[in-house]
Amino acid sequence: GVEARYHVWSNFYLLAKAQGRFLGKKARDSQYIEDNIDAELHLGFGFFNDKSKPKKEILDISPYVRIAHGWATPSNLNDIITGNTENDPYNNQLTSLFYGYPLTDEIFGFPLDFYLTPGFVFHCQMHR
Fold first, then answer.
1. Is the Cβ–Cβ distance between 93 and 123 less than 8 Å?
2. Which residue from 17, 75, 60 is spatially nearest to 42, judged by alpha carbons?
3. Which residue, 108, 125, 119, is CA-closest to 47?
4. N or C end of the chain, less CB within 10 A?
């Protein structure tokens, strides 16, 4: 296979990958295999560390934890904003917990924060 990375600007890159595989006799003879050649082509873009700038040891942003809870309503957005909501007859509720891990506080020289944010959401429905 072949991989290529083309630097466009700052830490923005274009990416390409082409790869081929030739399967052995045992794999080719399997009833689940149609062809003995497997090919892939990937095109895309990515963000990598800007090599022209020294790597920051400490970011200006911190990790965070976000906890939220909400109740469903059949009301429309205008009713919700004005406080004229109806109760959901099924009492649908959501509770979520997310953790934000800081990746960078700057991209392309602009102060933009990027986080990896894994989380858990629980939906419950309580019949009345």
1. yes
2. 17
3. 108
4. C
Tokens describing residue 46: 């990515």
**Distance between CA atoms of 64 and 12, rounded to whole angstroms?**
27
31-68 tens-digit pLDDT: 777 778 888 999 999 988 777 777 777 888 999 999 99
Contacts 24+ apart (CB under 8 A), 98-104: 98/65, 98/66, 99/63, 99/64, 99/65, 99/66, 100/63, 100/64, 100/65, 100/66, 101/63, 102/59, 102/61, 102/62, 102/63, 104/59
Amino acid, single-letter form, for residue 85? T
Q: What digits encode the pLDDT tens for the residues 4-31?
A: 999 888 788 999 999 998 888 777 778 7
